[in-house]
Amino acid sequence: MDSDVVQQRGVVDAFLAAARGIDVKLVADKGSQRPGFGFATPLARADLYESGQLRTFADLRGRTIVVDSPNGITTFLLRRMLATAGLGPDDYSLVYVGATPERLAAQLAGGVSASMLLQPFDFAGVRQGQRRLGNSNEVVRNYEFAGYNVRRDWLARNEDTVARYIRAYAAGQRWLYDPANKEQAIQRLSTRTQLSAEDARSTYELYVERERPFPLGMRIDLGRVQGVLDSLVEMGDLTQPTPPPSRYVDASYVDRYGQ
After folding, report:
1. Is the link from the previous residue into 244 a cis peptide, with omega within 30 of 0?
2. Which residues have a Cβ under 8 Å from the Cβ of 229 and sit 6 or more positions away?
3. Residue from 61, 52, 63, 76 nearest 114 by CA
4. Residue 140 in contact with residue 41, Cβ under 8 Å?
5. Residue 54 belongs to what domain range?
6. Does 132 lie in the same domain as 158?
7. In the beta sheet, which residues pair with residue 131?
8. Which of 25, 55, 92, 191 has a 20 to 30 Å separation from 5 between CA atoms?
9. How many domains does one find in the chain?
10. Are 41 and 134 in contact (CB under 8 A)?
11. 97 and 168, same structural domain?
12. Could you tell me which residues are beta bridge partners of residue 34?
């Protein structure tokens, strides 16, 4: 791990680095999957769904699905979902594309049968005719989905920078959750993602008005960290028993500066 600070959609790589002896810690939460809410949605290609060829997870047998990376969060979640239909890793093919916009583009181009997408791109896919097959919360209910992972030696030298960042993030979060800023927030998301205002509005309503998956003060839930460790065991990257989740976390900075 060459970087001092890594902001990741998933914390898997940082946890694997820590397990191999690199002194990196999760210092702040950026988004958590919890009971009732899931970030990831598998979408079926429109033509396959409409023809009746792809309506369920079982119909993905022998098909190609686009995910983020071999040990990425969407790969783990997809494998969990397909396992509920009796499908193992040898029953389908995965294509690794990376970021969500590129995964949606691959599906719209017709090169894959299905994709694992995050908001707002799942909304964009549905608007363009793709069909939802489920939601990641159906199979994983507690999971540290995204966070800020930092080398301990860098933290020791740069506490003032960390403090200012956490305070700025908290101020931005308060701005986002203020209903007076709704329309401006939607417009900013639409502009940044280059998606429609409709997709941005659906995402805002999901994240801000209903679910709020971004915890106030960036506080870390150790139970959701354990969910990540359990997923690494399931994928063969760690063995049981795992170290306690506290080994991977340093919550002292959000405790001091996340008010």
Report:
1. no
2. 15, 238, 242, 243, 245, 248
3. 63
4. no
5. 40-138
6. no
7. 44
8. 191
9. 2
10. yes
11. no
12. 37
Q: Any idea how long the chain is?
A: 259
3-state secondary structure of 5: strand
Which of 122, 138, 154 corresponds to the end of one domain? Answer: 138
What predicted TM-score, i.e. pTM, was given to this entire model? 0.87
Contact 42, 75 (CB under 8 A): no
Contacts of 186 (CB under 8 A, 6+ apart): 197, 200, 201, 204
Burial label, 182 (beta-carbon count in 10 A; 0-12, 13-18, 19+) = middle
User: What CA–CA distances, in Å, run from 75 to 99, 188, 203, 234?
Assistant: 13, 29, 22, 12
The DSSP string of 116-165 is: EEETTHHHHHHHTT-EE---GGGT--SEEEEEEEEEHHHHHH-HHHHHHH
Pairing state between β 40-44 and 114-118:
antiparallel
161 and 238 co-located in one domain? yes
Q: What pLDDT score was predicted for residue 4?
A: 53
For the chain (259 residues), the mean pLDDT of every run of 10, in chain order, is: 50 88 93 89 97 98 96 90 96 94 95 96 96 93 91 93 94 95 98 96 96 90 94 90 94 91
As a whole number of angstroms, the distance between CA 46 and CA 131 comes to 6
CA 231 to chain centre: 13
Same domain, 111 and 207: no
CATH of residue 114:
3.40.190.10
Contact assessment for residue 256 and residue 244, using Cβ atoms and an 8 Å cutoff = no
Q: What whole-number distance in Å separates Cα of residue 236 and Cα of residue 230?
A: 10
Residue 239, both tokens: 């063995």
